Amino acid sequence: RSGSRRCIQEEHRSLVRKKHVLSRLHDALVWQALPVVQLLAPDERVCMHLIGTLLGKILVRLVVELKSEQYLLCILDESQKELCKATTMRSSLPTFTLLGKLADAIPGFADILVVEHSNLVDHLLMGLTYPNEAIKAAVCYLYGKLYSSPVGTERLSAHFEERLCGLFLNTLGRAQTKELQINCLGLLKELLKSDHFVSILMNNSKPEEESENADFLEGENPLPLVLKKLLLTRDEMLQAASSHCLAATLVHSPSRYAPAFIHADVPEFLFECLSCNSEILIWSVYCCLLLLTEERLFFSKCHTVYGIESLVRSLHDVLPLNNVELHKQGLLLFTEILKRQPVEIKLFTNRGVCIEAIDLLMETVNCPVLEVVVEAVRAVSAFLRKDHLSSPPVPYEELQKLLEAVLKRCADLSPPQSSKRHAVSQNEGDSSLLWYLLCVCRLAVEFQSDPMAQENAFTAPNSESKDTLNNFSKFLLRICDSLCIPMVMNYLERAVSPSVMEVFISTLNTLFTVVPNMRNKFSKKLGMGPSSLYLSALLHSNPALNQACSSFLCSLCLSLYSATEKERTSSQEEQEMSELLQKGLPQLNYTIAESLLLLAETPEPFSLDQSLCSHQHCFILLLYFACTHGDRFVPEAELFLAIRNFLLSAQDHGDCPPAYILRAALYLLAVCQDKGKTLDLRSLCTIRRILDGFPDLSLVYVHCPLLLKFFLHYPELMGRFGHQVLQLWFSWGDCKQTEIEEAGFGVSDQLNSVNPLLPILKSNSSILLILLDLVCSSSVEVAWKVLMTLRTFLETNEDILVCDLLRSRFLQILQQLLVESTNRNLPVLLSLLFLVQLRSKGVRELDSTDFKLLHQVSNLCGKCRPMDTDLLQPSLNFLYWSLHQTTPCSQQRAVAVLLSNVALLQILQKVLEHTWCRSPHSEPVYLSSEDALLCSGWLLVASLLLYQHRYNTEVHQTLSLDVTEVLNAVIFRKKKPILLLVSILQFLRAVLQQNFSSSLLVVVGENTAEGATRPQPPSLQDAALHPLAVQQVFSLVVSLQNLLVHKDFVLSQAVVACLETLVEYLYVKNQDVALHVASQPWHRFLLFTLLNRGRKSFLQPEVLRLMTLFLRYQRSNIISQKEISQILQEAAEANLAELPEATSRALHLFLCQVRGQ
């Protein structure tokens, strides 16, 4: 027997013990019931545990294992008997518990109970009325299982409506224990699955208008108040269950049931629940509030104003959690509140909350999950409303940061062109981005009409805030141009989406008015965009897209017209163009190829239908504005032919296009001229006849180099319209240059040329005659521009021989300008005169025109003041060059003309005296206008001295100069420019050549100056050198030696020539002094310095001329026979044909001197 016990399996031992315990418990209850009851009754917890163990772990398990319906019926029968014979309701608790556990464990038990033993339901109602929450909890649990079954729901529908509903709500409303509360909510959750039960619970039998009234809450325990009571508890589980039930109610019909909850102030307590840490509760609250947003009462009762801060902080708190769905749900709720909030009720009454909302949106935009980013961008779009942000001060800086964050995020998430896996998400992302941009642009436009938003009210006095609407709008325009538009255009070029395209074009249309004073710049930038893309949108079958594109193109064209035609903007013309575009663009449903063919069509004779002309004119305007900004979306050769055909067709039909259409057509012809064929005579005659029909060519003129070239290219057009076109070209001024400087978005390269007329002049020099006519017949401003163009042309084209063509007209122009004593074009004309002289090759006889010019210019100089450098400098240059670039016969007559002009010599006297009155410049490397005038004056006087002496010309006015001042100007240079020193040296050389005895020049020495003290008797050497002194001679020689060290060819030649003339003068006056000067040991050191500064060759012009000078005066201590031999050897080895002219001439003089020795 003990062996058999050991054989019993361990798993059966527990069952044997339980059976034994049950047997002994049964015996105790039969024979000694009172002690057992007294033992268990005091501790209800122990009693309930015992009953639950007996029912749940033994009986229920047994029935489940048996799997037989007859045993279930048996239990139900027994339960029915127990409930009927129970003396108190408390004794029914085990039965209710057993039935609940069976319904939970066995799927079909609830159906059997409802069908076979429906009378048990009456006992359940009695249990709900008994004042014991444990019994009520058991009953509610069982009810929940019964109503979870479809059969039970159907069978017990009337039971609930007639008997259970009120009793249940009362039980739920007064429940105190958590068990009862949870079981009641479980039952409620099952009931809320049925729309019928929801209607009953919400008392939907009342009229709908009463449901929005607070009287609805007068019932004993209506469901909204019961759920609100549960939300007030601190138990997050009950709060979550309550919010679940609330959402389950609203989901059936928010419009029907939401008002009751709103009147009960449930939203207020929902917002309070957002401060919890339970993700489940927060999710449930988000769902409830999202459903409540569908009811306008939710906003009009200001629940959103109360709860927006809680929502923003809740979203801040849940973002660190790894729960994407929670993030999306919260952002969706935030978006709906932002979108549906009435304009008249301000959502953000506290600026701090608004800033927190912006920070939240920035944080969500930077989320690594794309789905969250898309929701965040939608929330940002809804946030960008004037009524959300209009409380001063408007946080423009924060908005700018938010905009940058969104755009940067969208740019980072944009896939490459080859990626097709994310096509759908990219489409959605681009659509969200564009909608966001549209909201931002509309926001900026709305703020422009609000004085409070123009500049923030809290800016300190006398200070400028950066946090302004203007700065924000400029930033918006700049970021859209640099980032948003290229990004979306890149996407649209790969796949055109009508929805994306519609929002994109609407956004572009709105951007026109974001910054009004930058509208023209932005229009030019858009004008350079792909017009083919705009046209493809215009041709799209989507009506909304077609309308948006038509409106956009109309605004763009009108804005471009206003920007490019500011010189002649006509309100009537602009109105006509606006009407044409508004009417014609929506009907322009042709491809580009079809539109080109359309231009050549001719309307039917006597037809009143103007649609063809309207379509032609619209298409030409689109082509015009596109081409003016560099968008050549039509092949130029085809366009050239189409425009030509359009003009021929219009002429054949007898129509004359409006001025703005013909202006566009001529421009398109000019732009495409190089790619198209040359116009035939018929086409040129047609254009000429059409243009003759306009009273003023300016009506069809476009300030464009290509159009200018077009008119000047064809002799038929240049002969008829060349003068008018050039007049318009120069009259237009530099207005386009101003636009170029203003245009931050770029312009066509054809307007960037400094002077595009120059290459046209080079190819057709006969245009110069028209330009000279313009100088005579035009205003001062136009004449000045023409003269400046001619001067630039002559300066840059040395090979153009136009002197004879121009010289004959200059006299007439000069005479006309001299009549206007204040004419500012005189300096330019005088510069042209000198440039024409420079371009003349060789020496020629002066004719009558030349002498008249010489006379006019010299008289003009006599009327000037020394400070009139702009007139005197080119005039003196002209006079100087007239003396040198002619034959001796004409030269003699020219000198006589000049020396007879007393006023000219007087002004020259004043100019030369200004040399030692001028203040030295800090840097002598540049030549100022005053220094240039001094150079011209000294050179002209030197030439007059030379030629007066040569031709013994009569002198009517002498020049008076202090020789000491002249010498000091060279000796004490004081940073004089090199050219001025060269000019003074030329004058000094001319004076030395004439031994200071010219009838034109009166030399005033130090001892002869007016007011000088009584001089001491001069030495014999000084007397011989008069008006020079020995000390002055030595100082001059030293200064000339120092000047030779400078690495300047012109200065070196002038210094050597002056040194040669000085020694010759000294040799005539006093041979001892001359030989002393020539034998200075410093000369040999000077030669070595010149040889070592660059090329170590003796074949340098200044070296050869110095050697020749020293040989002439037999100074063997300066140059030796060895050095002479070395020079001869270098000359023998050199290629004489390749030597510079100055070197060849100096070598020739040196060899002659050597041979003479």
UniProtKB/TrEMBL annotation:
Residues that span the membrane, as ranges: none
Domain of life where this protein originates: Eukaryota
UniProt GO BP: meiosis I
InterPro entries reported for this sequence: ARM-type_fold, Immune_Signaling-Apoptosis_Reg
PANTHER family attached to this UniProt entry: BCL2 INTERACTING MEDIATOR OF CELL DEATH, MEIOTIC DOUBLE-STRANDED BREAK FORMATION PROTEIN 1
Name of the protein in question: Meiotic double-stranded break formation protein 1
Naturally occurring in which organism (per UniProt): Bubo bubo (Eurasian eagle-owl)
Lineage start: Eukaryota, Metazoa, Chordata, Craniata, Vertebrata
